[in-house]
Amino acid sequence: MSGSGLGxxxxxxxxxxxxxxxxxxxxxxxxxxxxxVILLVGGSTGHLPGTxxxxxxxxxxxxxxxxxxxxxxxxxxxxxxxxxxxxxxxxAEEAAPDLYRMVRDLADRLDVPxxxxxxxxxxxxxxxxxxxxxxxxxxxxxxxxxIAGAGRPSRVRTPAAPVLVIGSPFLWWMRVGELRAVLAPVxxxxxxxxxxxxxxxxxxxxxxxxxxxVTSEPRRGPVLRGVLAGVGWVARLLLxxxxxxxxxxxxxxxxxxxxxxxAVDYGLRIVAQEQVGLAYAGWDRLLTRVALPAxxxxxxxxxxxAGVVAALTELxxxxxxxxxxxxxxGERPACDLLEEPGAVDEAxxxxxxxxxxxGPAETGPTWSPVPWDDxxxxxxxxxxxxxxxxxxxxxxxxxxPSTPGEPSTPDAPTLTRVLAHLTTPPAxxxxxxxxxxxxxxxxxxxxxxxxxxxxxxPPTGPAPATGPTPDDEDLTGTTARSxxxxxxxxxxxxxxxxxxxxxxxxxTGPEGAALPGTPDPAPLRDDRALPLFPLQPPRTARELLxxxxxxxxxCAAMDTVGAAPGLDWLDGPTLVLGGVRAADLSPQxxxxxxxxxxxxxxxxLTRQGIRPEKPVRLV
Length: 619
Known about the structure:
Elements: H1 6-45, H2 51-80, E1 89-91, H3 97-110, E2 117-121, E3 127-129, E4 163-167, H4 168-173, H5 176-187, H6 190-193, H7 196-215, H8 222-261, H9 266-296, E5 299-301, H10 304-318, H11 341-356, E6 368-370, H12 375-397, H13 415-422, H14 480-502, H15 522-525, H16 541-560, E7 564-568, E8 572-577, E9 580-581, H17 586-595, H18 599-608
Parallel strand pairs: 2-4, 5-6
Antiparallel strand pairs: 1-2, 3-4, 7-8, 8-9
Helix pairs in contact: 1-2, 1-7, 1-8, 2-7, 2-8, 3-5, 5-8, 5-9, 7-8, 9-10, 12-14, 12-16, 14-16, 16-17, 17-18
């Protein structure tokens, strides 16, 4: 066995335990048939005469046939089911000869088989993935092309090493030596993985897991659903019996790989692990603060991996703990190991949008790439004006006048209109009769607003909430007008999302994105619900209201004092006033929402020279 050690021996013993469970299941399936054969042979030769033996033959023969049919069905589903495969961007050897050379040299130093191929994933992790299951092979070869570097799929099935999956942010942020040190324990895992017992146990577990997934699909006929229910019960029973052994087997493989990799770049690996944590933090921040707003606007940043370098470089400037990380940028980055890093970055960026947001697999009129230079104008400006337009549509539906006491003028959306509506009216000077609240002359009743035209039509589904709900418990700390407006915004946004989802996804092609190094679409077809990994829970009503008010303030600043939309690599869309990032706007907006007091926001507007009474340009 490759790699002697306690971890390798533990992994092999656990693999044998999994295989023993498989053998026992086979023996249980064959036992009734074996007994039935003995009874039939005994009856035909006269060795088992009598009524009792005849009754046993009549009962056991059909039972054994039934058990064999069930076992055959289970075996057929396990063999034919397609195991889950991580969505990746395959990297052919011609596209990254230096990267393949580095990985092979690393495998030679570790004395383990080299990975059969390399693929990238838009995540900060790296692992080995076994893709030797027959369902991962042809036909058709084009759909399962992650075994890069092989011109044609082999007709004869031979044992293949796992595919090395590398997190794409590592290639752009790490230096070549750091990447080699990080990949050493991963590549070392090909040694234990090559053992036939471990490989067989993994294939058996993958088949069971895939069989459970197949039997759980709802779109089946009643007869087939009943058959698959029995198959699924057997597969789950076997999975429960093997789960603990399989988990311990993987732990043993990891321990053996770590033990073997200790002699390779051990000192550099300690430093590289710090970069792993830093890359994870920067990648998460880039996706949630920068990429997510663009995805919601129907645009996907086409250079996410280059963006993580900019984000981490910015972090090194701001955070004293990261001061030493910028100095390493002068060394050769690992992305230089790719022949066309730009094309690979674009492919992984599109895959990231599909996995984390659920975007289409192809570009189209409503789903197009955006370079970083165009991000402020194409995403930030459009986002703010779209949110401001939605805010004023809701105010129009609530019959809120542009200026308190005057008729509504939708042609002139102003920030003053928003401030006046959210301002809590001053309390009366003296005590009022109990019926006084009913005689209030306020322009809009905030506590129980009537259903306005445009938003009051009952939808086909459940009616949207018009006030604080259990899902928006954070609205309890706001004013009544803020809560009502936030609920209306949530309902309007939900309607827009439902209308968008009802339109057929014309940009989603069955064969995936047509880009160089495009991700294999086959794993994505196995997952009905996208996104597979949502970045954030849906925004609360309070957050929606704060975002819309902030957008209105930014639109007023751009249209009255010449402010500009900007991109902050760590915080996302930002307002640039006089060449300086405006970072103190959020507290003023929250004060307006929670207390109904616009004085702090008005003071901020005055200090910046922004005129809230001027109309703004909407989308």
